[in-house]
Every structure is written in structure tokens, then in C-alpha cells.
Amino acid sequence: MSVSVVTDSYPTIGWSVVSVTPAGTNVTDWERDAVLAVAEVVVLAIILVMALLGNGLVLVVLLRRRGHHNPLHQFMLNLCLADLVVALFQVLPQLVWDAKGRFPGPDFLCRLVKYLQVLGMFASSYMIVAMTMDRHYAICCPLQAHRSGATQRWNSFILLAWGLSLLLSLPQVFIFSRSEVAPGVYECWGNFAESWGLKAYVTWMTLAVFILPALVITVCQVRIFMEIHNSLHVKSERRLSPASLSPSRRDTPPARGGDVSAAMSKTVRMTLVIVLVYSLCWAPFFSVQLWAAWNPDPSQNGAVFTLLMLLASLNSCTNPWIYSAFSSSVSPELRLLLLCRTASQRRGSLPNDSTTTHNSNC
């Protein structure tokens, strides 16, 4: 798609999906709030450090445990990679951009940065979807999951998540370019030839990155909780004597998932927390995006608007710590890594989350 006329747009604030200028706006006359600009840079810098530190440490621990072939570890490893893409190619470029006031680079860099910014959003969202779908398949369809094999299953989900992310981010390359937004003033800008282009694109991004994944995750989580509830109910009835059960209960077959282990339930709770935090971080971001795209005269320079936009990037800081809090194997190794200590190997207490700790040398 090749477009050149900006007809419907709004200024960039906090790495928005699109960075474009309103028709009739004199870019050279637009002045930034100096205090708000400094606040943006400081907040982005803090988020960048937190995201790099948290995801980097957990990634090191997971790479040390890569020989265990734990499916959940593989999903978290890829989620850490996706969050590092957000930190390095979304938060960092926006930090430099905000510090300088203008995009400091040629056309190629403009298109590349905009592609990678959205790639991180897609990958982080779709990796959570993939992890949830894997848990759903393992719990609700145990026989099919056993036949297909855990390794083949999580490989397929992870490859699909990355493949869709790489593909659906491509429009950014054609929408954005280094454009002359005022005489002698160049900016990394999104261009739409039609007045409805901006509205359609922001709406599509909201659906593809947030709403549709949220719907898929919700359906999977509801089915998982129903399966766990049925499994626990059948398990409690088995403790009763057959004589105390009604004839219909005696003939009732076991739940499809069988006895769901405590470790499996713990994994589901962790996934739910990740999803809730993701929703809390991204819902305000996309609400602001839609409001700015559809409102003909939005107030775009307010501090509340900017802070809501920056809130989304906090999600890349939270995932590794959530995983560490729920994992009985990663959390001890992470503490050892932070304390620069060594530890001998230990036996795990949970069947699906080995607590074997490798030597740590600082």
C-alpha cells in the first residue's frame, strides 16, 4: 500500500499505534509541554530498565533449564523474548524520540522501528494466547494432547504466535515513512489517503492485538475452570462409598481431564494473573487510541492521556516477576542469581515444574 496524503491523524504521544498529524495543524507551531516531556522520558527510562532487568534475569534462568523441556518454561522463555522486543524496539526508540523531540533517523529506520514496535505488541499478546491454549488443550483434551506429544504441541503454538506477529505487523512498513510534515521539518509519520483510514487501522489494531485475543483467552479460561471443577467434584465423590452415591452417579464416567494435579491448577492460576495484568495495562492504551482516532477534536496533550498511553509498556515489566512468583523452580534460581551464590542440584517437588537448580557463577 502506497499512500502520501495525510487526511486524518493525530500527534504522537507515548509510542501510539500511529503517529500522524491532524489536517490543518501547523506542526511548527505545536509546542510540547516541557515538564510533561521530561516526565515521559523519566517514566520510559524506568520502564526500560525494569523490563530489561526482569526479563533478562528470568531469561538467563530459563536458558539454564532448557534441557528439562518443560512446556511452560518454553512459553515463558518466548514471552520474555517478546517483552524484550517491546523494551528494546518499542520503549527504547520512543525514549530517544521523546528526548530529541523529533525522530532521529532516515526513512528505513523509521519503517523498521514502527514495524518492530507493533511486532512486540503482537508477540506479547499472542504468546499469552498460545500459553493459554496449550493449557486448555492439555486439561480439556488430555487424550489428544497425550497422542500429539507436549513438545510438538507447544512448538506449534509458539511458531504460530511468532508467525502471525511477524505477518500482521507488516502494514506498518507501508503506512509509515519519513515525511515532510512542515517546510523543512521531517518526522516518522503515518500517512492515510482516505479520511477513514486512520479510524479503520486503529480499530483493526485494537481488535487484532487486544479484543480478539482477550475473547480467545476468556473462552479457554472458562473451559479450563469448568474442567478443573468437574475433576475435583468427581474426585471428592470417589472418596465416598458406592452405596452412598445415587445410581446415576455410580454410572457417571470420570471427567475427561481426570484428576487435575495441584501443579496444573497452579499453572492455570499463574496464566490467569498474567492475563489480568495484561488487560489492566493494555485496556486504557487501546481505549485512548480509539478515542483519539474517532473523536474529531480530541484533547491530546493532557497528562492523563499521556500516562494512560505509557501504562501499556508496564506489562513488559510484570510478566517475569509473575512467573517467578508462581514457579517453584525459577524463583529459587532467580534469588541465587541476584545474590551471586551457587547451589547444588535439588529435586523438584512438583512433577511439571522441576526445581533442579544449576550452578550459578557470578
From TrEMBL:
Receptor for arginine vasopressin. The activity of this receptor is mediated by G proteins which activate adenylate cyclase. Involved in renal water reabsorption. It is a multi-pass membrane protein. It comes from Sander lucioperca. It is found in: Cell membrane. The keyword Cytoplasm does not apply. The chain crosses the membrane at residues 34-63, 75-92, 112-133, 154-176, 201-226, 272-292, 304-326. GO terms for biological process: cellular response to hormone stimulus; positive regulation of vasoconstriction; regulation of systemic arterial blood pressure by vasopressin. Residues 54-323 form the G-protein coupled receptors family 1 profile domain. Keywords: Cell membrane, G-protein coupled receptor, Glycoprotein, Lipoprotein, Membrane, Palmitate, Receptor, Transducer, Transmembrane, Transmembrane helix. Interacts with ARRDC4. Identified in a complex containing at least ARRDC4, V2R and HGS. Interacts with TMEM147. One of its GO terms (molecular function) is peptide binding. Pfam families: 7tm_1. This is Vasopressin V2 receptor. GO terms for cellular component: plasma membrane. The gene is LOC116059357. The lineage of its organism: Eukaryota, Metazoa, Chordata, Craniata, Vertebrata. The keyword DNA repair does not apply. It comes from the Eukaryota. Belongs to the G-protein coupled receptor 1 family. Vasopressin/oxytocin receptor subfamily. Gene3D superfamilies: Rhodopsin 7-helix transmembrane proteins.
